[in-house]
Amino acid sequence: MDEIEIKKREDRAEELFRMGYNCAQSVAGAWADYYGLDFNLAVKISASFGAGIGRMRETCGAACGMFLLAGLETGCTDSSDREGKSANYKTVQYLAGKFKEENGYLRCADMLAAMKDAKAIKPGYQAEERSEEYYKKRPCIKTVRSASRIYGEYLMNK
Q1: What share of the chain has pLDDT > 90, as a percent?
Q2: How far apart are CA 21 and CA 48, in angstroms?
Q3: Is 123 exposed, middle or buried (0-12, 13-18, 19+ CB in 10 A)?
Q4: How many CB atoms lie within 10 A of CB 106?
Q5: Can you list the alpha helix ranges (DSSP code H) found in the chain?
Q6: Are 156 and 4 in contact (CB under 8 A)?
Q7: Among 21, 33, 89, which residue's Cα sits nearest to residue 61?
């Protein structure tokens, strides 16, 4: 893993978001091939985490995509492996701290509330149509790039 590879994945995360994938899908999809994961499977298993988990504006979907990747890297499969679980939780907490440090928040609702056009973002389960105005009033491009880069830096420095 090097800075060029990280930048490529950061760009891919933005490209996927601009194509209409949600924030979690954009991050997971940008790294799918790194783990030998089929792209369609990656975006399917991360689909529910977009817009702060099912558009409920909870934990940022970009961060959730990053956490999904952390599970691929450090997740354990033995249900009695407390050390393995703890190592994964440590990784997730490290990544969450980096994300919050860089973006100011971990919760989607908090990020959106901090935006000057916060009232223009409607609640509910309906996915909004993508337009240039959509991209201007949200921090999502920044957060998918950030999550992808933070994850790459984690891999490079681990």
Answers
A1: 81
A2: 11
A3: exposed
A4: 17
A5: 3-19, 23-31, 39-45, 61-74, 82-103, 108-113, 132-136, 140-157
A6: no
A7: 21
Q: What is the pLDDT of residue 2?
A: 95
Q: Taking residues 36-55, what's their average pLDDT?
A: 97
- Nearest-angstrom CA–CA distance, 154 and 140: 21
Please give the Cα distance from 37 to 152 (Å, whole number). 17
Q: According to the model, what pLDDT value does residue 128 have?
A: 85
Average pLDDT over residues 9-28: 98
Interatomic CA distance for residues 98 and 25, integer angstroms: 20
Q: What does the block give as tokens for 79?
A: 């249900």
Q: Is 107 helix (H, G, I), strand (E, B) or coil?
A: strand
pTM above 0.85, yes or no: yes
What is the C-alpha to C-alpha distance for residues 134 and 143, in angstroms, rounded to an integer?
A: 15
d(CA 97, CA 55): 22
Of residues 100 and 122, more confidence is placed in 100
Number of residues in the chain: 158
